[in-house]
Write a structure and sequence with these properties.
By secondary structure, this protein is of the alpha/beta class. It is 34% helix and 34% strand.
Length: 185
């Protein structure tokens, strides 16, 4: 792929991200919004820009599952060596919420009542002079069952636990703490 192709791909991704963002945020209210920026290699930029061009989201869709006591369910991602929210990549003809629900079943095995969008993060992706962005939707759901069972077909997730105080090695920890404070304080 030539550099001009990266520019074209980034432009396509920008347009898809804008459409996805507006469709998502028109349907939901009361969610927190954040912006994150990632500087990546050309290869990773190409991969993420293609995902955004296809789905509007570079990292799929996720779920904040909570107990009324304020605890959040996190899963252990061995490849990243960190605790993360259950979630992942979007399959063909799958909505963001359907993705979040499927990933929750696979990665944690708990049932939950979905309540809407909890966090929408505008995720900027840069590589040198090229840039694009996508949306990272995080739905919020109240746990119906609380005993996690990991059945991740990708083998990336090896554990799931409930946390009141989030571990330091939690991805997007500041955003999750802000969400907890918004919901439970």
């Amino acid at each position: 792929m030539t550099l001009d192709d990266l520019w074209f791909l980034a432009t396509e991704a920008d347009q898809r991200a804008e459409q996805a963002y507006h469709r998502l945020t028109e349907r939901h209210t009361g969610f927190l919004e954040f912006t994150r920026t990632y500087d990546v290699s050309r290869r990773r930029f190409r991969t993420l820009a293609r995902r955004v061009s296809d789905t509007g989201a570079p990292y799929g869709a996720h779920t904040i599952v909570y107990r009324p006591s304020g605890e959040i369910l996190l899963v252990w991602h061995g490849g990243l060596d960190t605790w993360v929210l259950p979630g992942g990549g979007i399959q063909e003809d799958e909505s963001y919420r359907e993705t979040a629900e499927r990933e929750l079943r696979e990665e944690a095995g708990v049932e939950a009542n979905y309540e809407g969008l909890g966090i929408a993060t505008r995720t900027a992706i840069r590589c040198g002079e090229y840039s694009t962005w996508g949306i990272l939707p995080v739905f919020q759901a109240r746990a119906k069952t609380t005993t996690p069972t990991v059945r991740d077909p990708d083998g990336e997730i090896t554990d799931a636990k409930w946390f009141g105080k989030l571990p330091e090695n939690t991805r997007d920890r500041e955003q999750l703490v802000a969400w907890q404070e918004n919901e439970f304080d």
